[in-house]
Amino acid sequence: MNNQLARLILDYQKSVQTAVALMYRSGIQMPSSCADWIETDIPLSGTLDGGAHYIKHGAGCEVSLTAEKVDFDFGKHGEIDGFDVWRLVKYAGVNLVNYGFGAIDEVQDSFEKSVTDGSIVYSGDCLYYTADVQRLFAVDVDCRVSGDMLPSRDHDPVLTLYAHYFLAADLMRKNYEKLNSKWSECGRLSGDNEVKLRIYISSWLGFLGVTCAGFRDLNMRLLLQSNRPESFQELIPISDGIGRMMKKHSNPLREFRNNVFHLRKNLDVTRNFFAIGEDRLPWAHELHEAIAGFLSEYRILCEVHYVMHGRKGEMDSNRFKKRQKLRRS
Fold first, then answer.
1. What is the pTM of this model?
2. Which of 309, 25, 18 is nearest to 149 (CA)?
3. Which range (69-73, 183-187, 246-250) has the least confidence?
4. Which phi and psi (to 5°) does residue 144 adopt?
5. Which of 129, 157, 168, 256 places its Cα 20 to 30 Å from the Cα of 285?
């Protein structure tokens, strides 16, 4: 690929990123596929924060930025770095000569040569991509402004810990408690429910162990102190309390977790965790509640920050509206 075409493609892709970030900040949810975008229920045209205008069309959008207008389609899996000759030429407009092209035919010729030599690859869905470059997805776009210390919602490791591990622990704990209450009331369980009870308690403690490991690996005190907005420092005492609580039985819980998520070789680890007099089950319940409280407060602070910093696309209220629309469709 010659330098002129490479520069045009790169500028186009940067403008698309700017447009997508602005759309997200303005409250438009980013799609995980082109089909998802087609079904997105937003006005076909409107004004974004800051006054930029957008027009929704098919699998893509046209956004009028301050200095230029950019038209793009979302890829099959929500990619935003795809392009074709028509979009590149439309983006360059009267500035085509500044990229070293005297006419549209020259862009077409350079583009076709790049496809032939393999520096540009066709995706099969009307879009082309630069070869050997990692694809950029709409859901991965960072919409923060300079100086904003709170990571993007989908790239915040604390929220990842909550969504992928603690919620699993919480679900298993609720299932366990429901059957355990039934056992206490009736004095017995069916064979099927006895199996489920064992699965639920093991899964709960296993995922709780993973959550604790993540909590430690993130070095939560340092993260809150140095890598989050100042308002998050109010969580440091809670985080320190959880750290002290985890230490009490951290090794037995870690070993139990490993025994859950790896093929069990013997029952010693399980027997050790539930050993009489150790009171590890009440400790696990107390620890679970403490982590739940911390993560709840963390998420509230995130929501306040999104609102105060104009990050509308990351707000829970907007995501809830999207889920409601999907249920009604």
1. 0.87
2. 309
3. 183-187
4. -70, 155
5. 157
